[in-house]
Amino acid sequence: MKCILSQPLHNNYGGLLQAYALQKIVRDMGYDVVTDIGETNDMALPLRRRMRLQRKHISKRLRGKRPATPLRLHFPTQEQLDRVNENTKRFVHKHITTVKFITQGRRPSDEMQNQFDTFIVGSDQVWRSEYSYIPNYFLDFAELRKGIKRISYAASFGISEWAFPP
Questions:
Q1: At what angle do helices 78-95 and 13-28 cross, to 10 degrees?
Q2: Any idea what DSSP says for residue 20?
Q3: What is the pTM (predicted TM-score) of this model?
């Protein structure tokens, strides 16, 4: 059995579509495959992204590179978030076979690891320390296990600067 490790399956449409597509391709190749559902605070990532946009906007203004349009951030209501979460959870339940493999910041148990002969990491910013517990996404837990295949599929850092300690 194969296990895909990706960003948590929350309300990121692009992330959900890539998770669905990768799992479908692996399944169409004749393999049994599941995707780690991941763990995240549904509001944490969107809030971090909004804050990063604000910092970039302010930085440009301070350097005299005033953006053509003012920054307008949309903060969804709880009702809107609930609707999005309901729809994305329904999509995951219907189209993506999931497993709870990694608990944020912890190594998967040996019992859980032994269920799989291959681990696929990808895609989209799985190697970004701001979003992931990097040792798990470098598959450090599988290094000493003989016969385990470790595959990276379109994994990225998502930023142009090196964000790791030496």
A1: 0
A2: H
A3: 0.75
- Please check whether residue 165 lies inside any domain of the structure: no
Is the residue at 16 inside a domain? Answer: yes
Q: How many domains does the chain have?
A: 1
Q: How far is the C-alpha of 166 from the C-alpha of 164, rounded, in Å?
A: 6
**Parent domain of 69:** 2-152
| Structural domain contains residue 164 | no
Place of tokens 């598959």: 139
Instruction: State in Å, rounded, how far the first CA of the chain is from the last one.
Output: 35
Note the pLDDT tens digit of each residue in 43-92: 445 555 666 666 776 777 677 666 555 656 666 778 887 888 888 889 99
List beta partners, residue 34.
3
User: What residues have CB less than 8 Å from 126, skipping those under 6 apart?
Assistant: 5, 6, 7, 132, 137, 155, 156
